[in-house]
Amino acid sequence: MFNAVASRITQIMLLKAGPQDLPTSPSLLQLATALFLATAIARLLLVSDLTVALVQSALSIVILAVFVRALLNWKRTPERFVQTMTALFLTSAVIGLLLLLPLDALQPLLKALTENPDISPEQLEIPAMAMYAWAGLSIWGLVISAHIYRHALDISFGFGVCVALLYEILLIFIVGFLSSLFGGV
Asked: What keyword terms does UniProt attach to this protein (predicted)?
């Protein structure tokens, strides 16, 4: 089963398959959730402490689950939830692993910005290759998510991009709002 799922995830990431091509398996969704959580924590640990990384990673899971559930209920296709979430979590986990390398190279820059958000860009030394790799992988992750939403919601790719961007904006807003309320969460 591992080889079949890995093959399907690869096909989804190459935009040649959709979430409907994954098995509807709650145990696979649990594994996908754990992998997503692990990679999200690993990325966040590069710029924050363990508590913040755990809370923000768990929060992103909850927000994504509520977001996807609401969209699928709106489209009257709630039966697609397990496959959609599995696809989103597994593809995000792969992108997250790939992002660790450029994020590690960008860590000093990110720490400087976290500690002093008013710092002038001229004062920063930006590693260009790491920045390009991070940007490329982030955009590719957004394209993959749009592709998954396109299939899950039976919408055009353009609307899939809008849905993927809406989730990212919602996530940033909610995490930012809660961070301001609770001081750094």
From this structure: Membrane, Transmembrane, Transmembrane helix
Amino acid identity at 35: L
Maximum CA extent, the chain? 52
Cα separation, 145 vs 119, in Å, equals 33
Neighbouring CB atoms inside 10 A of 111's CB total: 13
Give me the residue spans of the domains in the chain: 2-182
- What b-and-e string marks burial along 119-135, b requiring 16 or more CB atoms within 10 Å of the CB? eeeeeeeeeeebeebbe
Structure tokens at 159: 């609307």
Burial class (CB in 10 A: 0-12, 13-18, 19+), 25: middle
Contact in structure between 19 and 84 (CB atoms under 8 Å)? yes
Q: Quick one: tokens of 29?
A: 């969704």
Look up the pTM and report it: 0.91
Specify whether the CB–CB gap between 160 and 166 falls below 8 A.
no
- What is the spatial distance between Cα 150 and Cα 54, in angstroms, rounded to a whole number? 30
Q: How many CB atoms lie within 10 A of CB 183?
A: 7
Q: Each residue of 20-66: pLDDT tens digit?
A: 999 999 999 999 999 999 999 999 998 888 999 999 999 999 999 99
Query: Is there a contact between 102 and 84 (Cβ–Cβ < 8 Å)?
Result: no
Structure tokens at 124: 């920063």
Residues above pLDDT 90, as percent of the chain: 79
